[in-house]
Amino acid sequence: MPMLSIRIDGREHRFEQGISVSEVACAIGAAAEGQWLLGGYLDGQWVMPDHRIECNGRLHVVTESSPEALDLLRHGLAFLLAAAVRHLHSGSAAGSIQMTETGFAMDFDTGRPLLAAELGPIQAHMQRALAQGQAVISHQVGREEALSMLSMPDERYQRQLAERWLPAQTLWTHALAEFVLISIRPMPALIESHCAFRLMQVSGAYWNGDSTQPMLTRIHVAAWFHADHLQRSLDQLQEIEKRDHRKLGKQLDLFHFEEQAPGMVYWHPAGWSLWQVIEQYVRDDFRKSGYQEVRGPQLMDVQLWKRSGHWRHYQQHMFLTESERRRYAVKPMSCPGHVEIYKAGHHSYRDLPVRYAEFGNCHRNEPSGALHGLLRVRGFTQDDGHVFCTADQIEAEVAAFHRQAMQVYRDFGFDAISLKLALRPPRRMGDDASWDRTEGALRSALARADIAWDELPGEGAFYGPKLEYHLSDSMGRNWQLGTLQVDFLMPERLDATFVDAHGQRRHPVMLHRAILGSMERFIGILIEHCGGWFPLWLAPVQAVVLSVGIQQADYAVKVATGLQERGIRCHADIRHETLALKTREHSLRKVPYLLIAGDREARSASVTMRARRGEPSRTLPWQAFAQLVEHKPFRFNGHPRESET
Ligand SMILES: [Zn+2]
């Protein structure tokens, strides 16, 4: 039997001609026992496990532990889902598939919105198809073939997807009986014992995210290889739902939204108290790291936004208004305002870097369908800052910003942080040479500060590359928060200058930086991260004094007033309700300390303290309670030293 030379992950192997992919996988120990071998790529072409190899070539084996395997499984299940929807709702048209962290979501036009109650029969149909092991026929196809296969009215969205993907992507068609689906991925032969999935819920989604297009039904699916992974993921989803910041916002009486102001927040006293603690913390941090706080106008003439480049690149996101035949834009960002403040002074190279900070209240016209609680709003406040410096100073500024950002994240209880460098986008200002320069400056600053990072090609801002801080929350979800952007363009466009050592006028480099990003979004993330159990230093109400009966009302008020005078956020609850009811209400509000004031306590100037986390109750003089709170290592009106969640 002639021998073949097959290169697998960079290593040469020799096998007899006609060996199958699964035999090769077995021989090289690619799949552990009981693992599913999905197939492989032979010289870049997808092949099934039973494919026999006849020529020399390169092979990449895909098992369920390969990084791409979960995507292949989920695309396979999406096909089964689409086939089931078509079978049960004739004439329905399948739209696009989105991968999610726990599975996938797929859109359908069924002529009317599908109801959650209709998911059961669809799931059952999929399970049956899986159990029967129905053979799906897959083909790699060219442009003409793909488009000719997608000519029916119920294939209209598939056709649009194919047109969008071609010719950049390799396309596959998968067919089961009459049903055809187009995909950019091949499809493995699904094995029932290795497909654990649950149809979770339905929502509405416009085709292409465009509100002028039809509203489709989006079916959300959790999908994994094994039942225990699925169960873990369902438990996590349940926890995420429990911690939803919109739900906790209501329960803790922090904020609400109204239809009359889409994407803009009504902050209640408790929510605004939380906001203020965060704002004062950030303000303190600005001061300590050499930033001067400034404030620019909310409305500025459209001419300024034309000069800054925002009009051309950002116009569709700006709210506009008019007065005395002049057009103004509501600021979507604070940068041009800071440039104007910088320009109002005369700057020598000796003055640089100049660092300005602002709690910049901005508005951006996000599509109403994309708004989501505090996480996606139209009116928001950034912990914004701009550094005007020379190119030589970028490195030190990036290193200082990095140290500052990491400390802030730790103080708020985020420990898992990764850095990404977003590079030039397709639509951008400036020539390639200046992009090479700015991207190079950031890379070398990071390398010299010994910081590890990943790169995201095409995801930079239109005026410069971006350094992004991605945080992982207590439920393992990732959020992009802080950014630092290097900008050589805006100071030049708006003619900001400094005088160098030779008396020449030069343009400074501008660094745009934010650590929390949008305050609203950060608070949303924080609420979900700690599940509403704010650490003591952040808790809107740190303690409530509960009178047991009417006789102790005066004493409870006296204690609460005493604690307030010492800077503790506290009040008395002297309502004529039972202690059990009052305790339950404040526990639901997740107040860190409940202080009970009964007869015994009133006589001894003490309180019985109940901490929220199951610590045993104890009675102590109320001044001792104040000292206990004041001497916590994380001061509630200063920097926390550890996070107590
Ligand atoms: Zn900026």
In whole angstroms, the N-to-C terminal distance is 67 Å
Counted up, domains total 4
The CATH architecture of the largest domain would be: 2-Layer Sandwich
Using the coordinates shown, work out and report the CATH topology of the largest domain.
BirA Bifunctional Protein, domain 2
Estimate the strand proportion: 25-35%
Q: Which regions have little confidence, pLDDT < 50, spanning 5+ residues?
A: 635-645
Arrangement of strands in the largest sheet: 15-19-20-27-24-23-21-22
Ligand species: zinc ion
Average predicted confidence as pLDDT: 89
The number of E-state strands comes to: 32
Helix content: 25-40%
Shape: globular
Q: Which structural category do the helix and sheet elements fall into?
A: alpha+beta
- Rg over CA atoms, rounded to whole Å, is 30 Å
Tally of contiguous helical segments: 19
Biggest sheet layout: 8 strands, mixed
Q: CATH top level of the largest domain? A: Alpha Beta
CATH superfamily of the largest domain: Bira Bifunctional Protein, Domain 2
Task: Summarize this structure briefly.
This protein is of the alpha+beta class and 645 residues long. It has 19 helices and 32 strands.
